[in-house]
Amino acid sequence: METVECLRVRQRGDSAEITYKPPSNTVTHSVSGVIAKQENNVQLADTRQAGAANALLAAVGMVELVRVEKARSTYRHPDCDSTAVSIDLVAGVGAFVETEILASDSDGAAAHLEDIEQTIGISANPIVRLPYRDLVMRAQTAV
């Protein structure tokens, strides 16, 4: 929880994958607040494999912390495939906009993300720095 490390089984549409996100630290967070982490993904054969993946994780002692259910719509500019704007509807929590860029230069990425957020009119909105996992857990304990 403290390091924002994540191991998850994700299902969406007709695909499933296991994803590991390493712990957050001063290297993964830039001065501008951009989070840059290398995700490790293992694509599963199909959604039926998600159950097997969850069983495997349980067999090695992992415990499901929380289940995040979200609907995501993602938009990309036709001339800039490395940039995405996603609208997430997170069950029990609310709606969020995520801007993402696939880049190795986090400083250049930060400026590009700021431009996008200004262009689509969300730059004045507050930035939510907690992962959906934490937001869902908070919403569940508030009930």
UniProtKB/TrEMBL annotation:
SUPFAM superfamilies linked to this entry: CYTH-like phosphatases
Taxonomic superkingdom: Bacteria
One Pfam short name: CYTH
Signal peptide: none
Domain spans labelled CYTH: 1-138
InterPro entries in UniProt: Adenylyl_cyclase_CyaB, CYTH-like_dom_sf, CYTH_domain
PANTHER family to which the protein is assigned, alphabetical: CYTH DOMAIN-CONTAINING PROTEIN (PTHR21028:SF2), SI:CH211-156B7.4 (PTHR21028)
Protein name in the entry: CYTH domain-containing protein
Biological source species: Nocardia carnea
